[in-house]
Amino acid sequence: MHATRWIPLDDRVAARPLRRASARRRIARLAVTVIVALCWSRPGVADEPIRIAHIDPFSGAFASVGNTTSKTMQYAIELINARGGVLGRKLELVSLDNAGDPNKSLTAFNSATDQNIRYVVQATNSGIAGATLDAVAKYNERNPTKPVLYLNYGSALPDLTEEKCSFWMFRFEPHQLMKMRAIAEFVASDPSIRNIYLINQDYAFGQVTSASAKTMIKERRPDVNFVGDVFHPVGKVKDFAPYIAKIKESGADTVLTGNFGADLSLLVRAGKDFGLKVKYITLYGGLGGAPTAVGEAGDGVVYQVGPWHPNVPVEQKQPAVEAIGALFKQKYKEDLYYSAIVVQMDLFAKAIEKAGGPDDPKKVALALEGMEANTAFGPVRIRRDDHQLIQPLVISVFGKGVKYDAENTGLGWKTVMTVPAKDAELPTVCKMKRPA
Known about the structure:
Layout: H1 9-41, E1 50-56, H2 63-82, E2 91-97, H3 102-114, E3 119-121, H4 126-142, E4 149-152, E5 169-171, H5 176-189, E6 195-201, H6 204-220, E7 225-232, H7 241-250, E8 254-257, H8 262-273, E9 279-282, H9 290-294, E10 302-306, H10 320-332, H11 339-355, H12 361-368, E11 372-375, E12 378-382, E13 389-390, E14 393-399, E15 412-419, H13 421-424
Parallel strand pairs: 1-2, 1-3, 3-4, 4-5, 6-7, 6-8, 8-9, 9-10
Antiparallel strand pairs: 10-14, 11-12, 12-13, 14-15
C-alpha cells in the first residue's frame, strides 16, 4: 500500500493558488505547442510559392535588356505555373534592380538572402556575374545549412564555368568560346571574309571575345587579317561615328562584335547612317533593338550565333516552340530571344520535382547535374563536370522571306549553319569543389 500524505487544511487552502498557477502555465505551454503545430500544418503552407530573386538592370544604360529578361523570366514561370506549378506549388519572381552596377547587385543579393530566398537568377553582365558568384560562395560558407543556388541564363564569360566554376552555379547559355568555335566554322565556310575588324566593350567579356576570335578563327582560316581591334567603355558611348570612320579606313569587309544592348544597336545604327558596307558577325544580334536599328541595311549582312531563333527548321525543334514564341510576342509585343531562360526554368522545375521539393538547394543542384532533357527548343544536357549546358548552336543571317520576322521589320533570321552539340562542346578545366 502507498502511504497517504495528509496536508493540513490551511496548507491545502494556501496551495490552491499555486496549483491553479501551475495549471495555467501548463495550459499556456500546451496552447503554444498547438499554435506552433497549427502554424506548421495549417492548410496552404505546402502551397506557398517558391520564390526566385531576379537581379538584373531594370534601370540605367542596359534597362532595356533587363526588362526583356524580366518579361521572359515571368513568361517562363507562367508556363510552369499554368501546368500546375512544381509539386503543387507556384513559382514566384522577385525582381531586384542592380542598375548594371556590381555594388548595387551585391546589395540586391543581400536583400534576397535577408528575405530567405534560396534561388537567385542573374546574367546580364559577366563582370557582375563574377561578383555574384563570389557572393554566393561566401554566403554559403557562412550558412551551410541554408545555401543559395545561382542560375545563370546569359553571362557568357568562359571563366564562370572554368577557373571559377562552382557547385552552386549552373549556366544555361553557351559560353563565349563555344560561340566563337561556331563563328570560326562559319568564317571557314565563307571565303569572302578576309579582313575582320574587332570592336568590343572594354571589360572581361569583350576582351575574351577579341582574344578568342584571333586565336580560333586563325586556326580555321590562317589567311584572314584582323585589321582592327578596338575596345570602348561599356554603356557610355552615345555616338559610334568615330568608330565607324576607323572601320571604314581599315578596309574591313566584316565587323565582329560581342556588344549587346544599346552598345550593339547604336553601333549598327551608326554604320547604317554612314553607309558602311560590311558583314556584322554578332553574339547578340537578335537581342531587342538591334533588328530595328539595322532594318533594311541588315538584309543579308548581319549574322548572329546562338542556340535558337524563331525560324529554326521545324525538324530541329518541338512543335510546341512555335506556340511558345507566338504567345510571348502576343503578350509582350516583342520577340522571344532568351530561349535559355525558358530552358533554364523548365529544367529547374524538373530538378525540384526530382529532389522532392525546393527546401534543400543542394539536392536541387544534385538533381540538375547531368540532367538530359528534350526541351521545346531541342535536346540539352547539363555537364556534371562544370554545370555548363550543352546544346547545338545555330549561325543565322538577317533577311527577307521568313515566316517570323523580327520586331515587325519584315526581316527575320534564317539558318545558314548548324553546329551539333558534340562540336560546340569544348573540354573544361573546371576543378569543382563539392559540399560534403
